[in-house]
Amino acid sequence: MHYKTLSLRALRTFTTTLQHRTLTTMAPKIKLTYFDLKGRAEPIRLTFVAGGVEFEDERIGRDQFVEMKTSGALTFGSVPVLEVDDVMYGESAAQLRYAANVGGLAPSCPVEALKVDMVIDASESIIVTAFADTSAEGRAKFLETSLPRYFAPIEACIAQTEGPFLLGDKISAADIKLAVIVGSLKSGILDHIPTDCVDKYPAISGVYTAVMENERIKKYYASK
Ligand SMILES: N[C@@H](CCC(=O)N[C@@H](CS)C(=O)NCC(=O)O)C(=O)O
């Protein structure tokens, strides 16, 4: 085809196709910004790691956070924030799903995706309820009501599969988010939370073990 005879519309279509191809084949530039803590960023970091996706892991201090927040630099005034090709996105659950999508960890079956999303969102509810009241009474209520409210159905859901993960032998972002929560509940660093509080949930404990045994995740922690 000669450019002389190429119509403007055809040229535009050609250019758009070329841009689309370039965008879809080139690896995106990814930067995750959070405090130097596990918190809400660790499941996103580990999902990138498990999917073999390169990303910049930016850790900021309190002063830098306050500066970013007050200057309006953070999407919703909170962290983590994820920048993809220099565009910033807030909300950790959305970032986690993105990490699973680019790393090939997101299920294509809509019902499996629903299951994964359910556990991701329930895990976020566990975090919110665990930190709503960190006094001895608050944490006792969390252990008696909120934790079993979410853990018992998740346990049943995992127990229905061949294991060790929520979707059987396929690791998902939900397993990773759950494993990070289990890790912090077992760590002994949360006030008034006994380190054995997850022991009565064998399937959830199995997810934790299997995630920590993932080759890429194991290598990542060994290099820290
Ligand atoms: N729903 C948000 C909650 C984000 C959130 O509350 N982040 C905390 C750190 S884990 C934060 O930025 N706190 C400081 C603030 O909001 O000023 C998400 O999941 O990303």
Structure described in brief:
With 224 residues, the protein is α+β, with helices and mostly antiparallel strands.
Q: What is the helix/strand order?
A: HEHEHEEHHHHHH
- What is the highest CATH level, the class of the largest domain? Alpha Beta
Ligand kinds: glutathione
Work out the number of β strands: 4
Number of domains: 2
Strand order of the largest sheet: 2-1-3-4
Rg over C-alpha atoms, rounded to the nearest angstrom: 21 Å
Structural class: alpha+beta
Could you name the CATH homologous superfamily of the largest domain?
Glutaredoxin
Helix content: 55-70%
Number of helices: 9
- Characterize the overall form: globular
Question: Could you describe the 3D structure shown?
Answer:
This protein is α+β, with helices and mostly antiparallel strands and 224 residues long. The chain folds into two domains: 1-106, Glutaredoxin (3-Layer(aba) Sandwich), CATH 3.40.30.10; 110-214, Up-down Bundle (Glutathione S-transferase Yfyf (Class Pi), Chain A, domain 2). 57% of the residues lie in helices and 8% in strands. A four-stranded mixed beta sheet has the order 2-1-3-4. The chain is globular and about 55 Å long. The model is unreliable at 1-6 (pLDDT under 50). Bound molecules: glutathione. The site of glutathione has 9 residues, from helix 4.
